[in-house]
Amino acid sequence: MDDPKRIEALQSFAEDFGILFERFGIPRMAGRIMGWLIVCDPPEQSAAQLAEVLGVSKGSISTATRLLLAQGALERVGVLGQRGKFYRFPKDPASLLHSEVKIMDAFIRLAERGLEIIDDRPPRQKDRLEGFLGLWRFFQEEMPRLIERFEATKKKTKSGRRQK
């Protein structure tokens, strides 16, 4: 078990993660959970453990873990000899990008549908939607290459960290 000062520092790290999430419109609690799961030991934590260490209700944990699970930012796992729900940060961090690919696909399908609806309209009406579609198609095309580059870098450096 870590000493109290380290636990406090890790809790502060998780809180800062939550604040960063909140800046981007994601609930702070989801960020706090993700921040904690990135640095905690053991890596699998129960909802009760998360509630205790983060000083929140189990209901807050439940709501935020559902959001993170839906986004692929969290894995639900079993722990031998333990009952209840356990969560961990994905073993493959690139899995976070795979969920982004699904989001891109949804935006592309919706934008294509919108263009069909306004196909006969003047260019000034279609330009914004075509630009939006172009952006997501670009990211959709580039994302697999980025994931491959990340995986190759991770293999070279073992941890995925950049060499200093």
Describe the structure in your own words.
- There is one protein chain.
- By secondary structure, the chain is mainly alpha-helical.
- It has two domains: 4-88, Arc Repressor Mutant, subunit A, CATH 1.10.10; 95-157, Orthogonal Bundle (Helix Hairpins).
- It has six helices and three strands; from the N terminus they run ααβααββαα.
- The protein has helices at residues 4-23, 28-39, 47-54, 58-70, 95-117, 123-157, and strands spanning 45-46, 75-77, 86-88.
- It has a three-stranded antiparallel β-sheet.
- The longest helix has 35 residues, at 123-157.
SSE topology sketch:
Blueprint: H1 4-23, H2 28-39, E1 45-46, H3 47-54, H4 58-70, E2 75-77, E3 86-88, H5 95-117, H6 123-157
Q: State Rg.
A: 20 Å
| Content of β-strand | under 5%
What is the domain tally?
2
Mean pLDDT: 91
Structural class: mainly alpha
| Unreliable segments of 5+ consecutive residues | none
Give the name of the CATH architecture of the largest domain.
Orthogonal Bundle
The CATH fourth-level homologous superfamily of the largest domain? Winged helix-like DNA-binding domain superfamily/Winged helix DNA-binding domain
Discrete helix count: 6
Please provide the ordered H/E string of secondary-structure elements.
HHEHHEEHH
Number of strands: 3
Distance between the termini: 30 Å
What is the top-level CATH class of the largest domain? Mainly Alpha
Write the CATH fold name of the largest domain.
Answer: Arc Repressor Mutant, subunit A
Using the alpha-carbon principal axes, give the shape: elongated
> In this structure, how is the largest beta sheet organized?
3 strands, antiparallel
Determine the fraction of residues in helical runs and give it as a percent range.
55-70%
Give the spatial strand order of the biggest sheet: 1-3-2
